[in-house]
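Journal club prep — side note

Before the paper discussion, L.F. wants everyone to see what a predicted structure for a comparable chain looks like in token form. Sequence:
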Amino acid sequence: MFKVDVAGGVQVATIEVSKQHRLGLAGARQAVQLVAERLQSDLNARHDWQGYKLKFECPGAEGHINVTETGIQVSVDLSWLLKPARGRIERSINEYLDEAIG
């Protein structure tokens, strides 16, 4: 999916990933916190929880992770510089989540 940033007129790539889990709400939030810490370590990402929604930002990307009782939904907007790496980034997101939720 691609969209236009109205402010800058630049087309960005959006990655959407959904995973089901059996961890319950608290367990899934804890698993996503581990993902956030890994993003901070690996990519210098900043994050902030707003209830069960984790917002994050790192150089060239920003997004959020919604945690529910049975699922995790990730949405990431990539800058035009990272657009060519979209497939590799999406695979990494899936790997991070698979490791975190088992």
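L.F.'s comment for the group: The domain at 2-101 is CATH 3.30.310.50 (TATA-Binding Protein). Keep this in mind when we get to the figures.
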